Amino acid sequence: MTLLELTDIAVEHRAPGRGRVRAVDGVSLDVRSGEIVGLVGESGCGKSSLARVAAGLSAPTGGDVRLRGEHVTPLGRRRRRRAEIGLQMVFQNPYSSLNPRRTVLSQLLDGVPPDVGRGPERERYALDQLTRVGLDESAATRFPHQFSGGQLQRIAIARALAARPHVLIADEPVTALDVSSQAQVVDVLSQLVRGLDVGMLFISHDLALVRRLADVTAVMYLGRIVETGPTERLWREPKHPYTRALIDAIPSADPDAGLPRALAGEVGDPAAVRTGCRFRARCPQAFAACAEEPELAGEDHTVACWLEADDTGRAA
Amino acid sequence: MSDELLAVEHLAVSLPGPDGPVPVLNDVSLTVRRGQIVGIAGESGSGKSMTARTLLDLLPAGAEVSGTLRFDGAELDHRDRKAMHALRGHGIAMVFQDPTAALHPMLSIGRQLTEHTRVHLGLTRTQAKAQAVELLEQVRLPDPERALRSYPHQFSGGQLQRIAIASALAARPRLLIADEPTTALDVTVQAGILALLDSLRSEFELSVLFITHDLGVLASLATHTCVFQNGRVVESAPTAQLLRSPGHPYTRALLAERAETAEVPR
């Protein structure tokens, strides 16, 4: 069942002296229950702008966000509607997303739904969330500074889970963590998604991590999705030259493999107005048709590239 | 050996803890030759960064160091502050993991790239600027003239890391210590930085001590690799040999863990 639907989302930022920056330009994405959708792309491609829109934290310039068929309206000064509480976010940096001056328990209680009951029952419920993410109940009375980064991120996940979400949006949830604590947080996230049947949009610049976790992978470049597909298929048979370049850039532990191939050029300026395929300037296989923008096409495994279009498409 | 640049022998470091000194490094020995890239691999807390910090005397107060450190034929003495000061930047330079933290946000790139060359190499302002442009060209940053007038927030992470490398190279060091220089970067940018370090090594005979948690990064870059675990070198071998037939169970575990996620069928 489709829980979260993003349809044709566009996000524009205005910055003095730069004009309008179109960070996200027409992205559609679905998250189903019990499914992890991984979104990868280089920094500056619009991943986080999309995450904030998906979580209802900022308003899209265009397009529509629906959670279980209902519109998600961006958070303002008003209280959030009950239905929208089903959308929870785990932020990149747990050191700043948790309040340093409140105990873990008091922060967890914030998310406990009203129908759980009163004092002791609410507390019990909050403590259960802690054990769910593999922490000891004794953690509840302590303050954030008494934990490591990995533990803090698990507390942040517990807080998001307390609200019984349908969909979790995790924006680079392990990037700020030590490499050894990344693994435990990733394991906790994947177990919870499978166990609780929630959906997750997992955003990361780390392809290896997305490969390990996601069922479906979407690759984003300069505000557009260039390829989506079941994770393993996308890895084994990448169709878009950009996806291929990303995979080629991962160093191999084979001593004969040579240095990973670097992609030529820099990520373009998102403020520049462009025509045609956005990846054209860096694409090793660019040809005449690329002056026109390709659409995402395909059944299960979609790709926006003229190389994959059949001849009729190319002629058009 | 005559082409030896850095030699660390039986290095042990302990830091003060609430219940007496806590050993963080134990009997660490390694050598870096001229124009060689040596890799240090291990998980967090294995003592990789402590080794780098010991070389530059950037240890926390109260640290106890024993063992010998030889750089360019001369023994390093951490008590000689003047000698250490002269060594940093000119002899050994360092690139850190987080380029946004390594550069001062309120000073222009030009100021940050010329300050130490004027101190260490005694260049005039114009000479220093010319050298800064040259350095930025070496690290393949587009439009160096303009970059010098810009501030760190105007660059992406990969560009900043290249600027940090340029800054580390400014005083012509003979050894560059790169402490997880690509961990915070995108893979595509990482590939560029690795290629850059390799070309600097072949062009300028720069020696690099490359610290990372990812053995894959070292595969084609480092000629020799040391694997650290709990403050000890558990395996030290030529990289190709270490990857093909890892001798220590810990190295095998590191490689196996990697193979699950990062190895791509090609």
> Treating each run of at least 4 consecutive H or I residues as one helix, how many helices of chain B?
11
Q: Looking at this structure, what is the CATH superfamily of the domain at 4-100 and 174-261 in chain B?
A: P-loop containing nucleotide triphosphate hydrolases
> Regions of chain A with pLDDT < 50 over 5+ consecutive residues?
311-316
SSE string of chain A, helix = H, strand = E?
EEEHEEEHHHHEHEHEEHHEH
Assign the structural class of chain B, choosing from mainly alpha, mainly beta, alpha/beta, alpha+beta, or little secondary structure: alpha/beta
Listing every helix as H and every strand as E from the N terminus to the C terminus, the arrangement of chain B reads: EEEHEEHEHHHHHEHEHEEHH
Report the sheet-strand fraction of chain B: 25-35%
| Rg over CA atoms of chain B | 19 Å
Sum up the overall morphology of chain A in one term. globular
Question: For this structure, what is the CATH homologous superfamily of chain A?
Answer: P-loop containing nucleotide triphosphate hydrolases
Biggest sheet architecture of chain B:
6 strands, mixed
N- to C-terminal distance of chain A: 36 Å
- Which strand order do you get reading across the main beta sheet of chain B? 6-7-8-3-9-10
User: Strand content of the residues of chain A, in percent?
Assistant: 15-25%
Helix content of chain A: 25-40%
CATH top-level class of chain A: Alpha Beta
Distance separating the two termini of chain B: 40 Å
Number of strands of chain B: 10
CATH topology assignment of chain A: Rossmann fold
Pfam family, one (chain B): ABC_tran
GO molecular function, one term (chain B): ATP binding
Main location (chain B): membrane
Subcellular location (chain B): Cell membrane
